[in-house]
């Protein structure tokens, strides 16, 4: 496998189930009781919320990558907060 074909290690966003009408009047979804469900990645970009449909075989991998991103983000934030606290402690002397 080339590096480009590997699945992303970290992905920003949330995996959610989207339920909606397809728009066809004759479809079972038209009365709003049996909506189509698709699993999407919801993310914000440029101040807008967006979604991208996920292929069924990718859902588990995307969930893992999203979790990995969140974990890394939490670690980075903790590190940054510790750095800030250390700086403030130096200035307080
Ligand atoms: Zn439909």
How would you describe this structure to a colleague?
This protein is an alpha+beta fold. The chain has one domain (11-92). The chain has one helix spanning 59-92; strands at residues 14-20, 36-45, 48-53. A 3-stranded antiparallel beta sheet has the order 1-2-3. The longest helix has 34 residues, at 59-92. The chain is elongated. It starts with 13 loop residues before the first strand and ends with a helix. The structure holds zinc ion. Zinc ion binds next to loops.
- Please report which band the strand proportion falls in: under 5%, 5-15%, 15-25%, 25-35%, 35-45% or over 45%: 15-25%
Q: SS-based structural class?
A: alpha+beta
Number of helices: 1
What is the CA-CA span between the terminal residues? 55 Å
The biggest beta sheet reads: 3 strands, antiparallel
Mean pLDDT: 93
Strands, total number: 3
Shape: elongated
**Residue share in helices?**
25-40%
Order of helices and strands: EEEH
Strand order of the largest sheet: 1-2-3
The stretches of 5 or more residues where confidence is low (pLDDT under 50) are none
Our Rg estimate from Cα atoms comes to 20 Å
Number of domains: 1
Summarize the structure.
This protein has 93 residues and is α+β, with helices and mostly antiparallel strands. Helix content is 37%, strand content 25%.
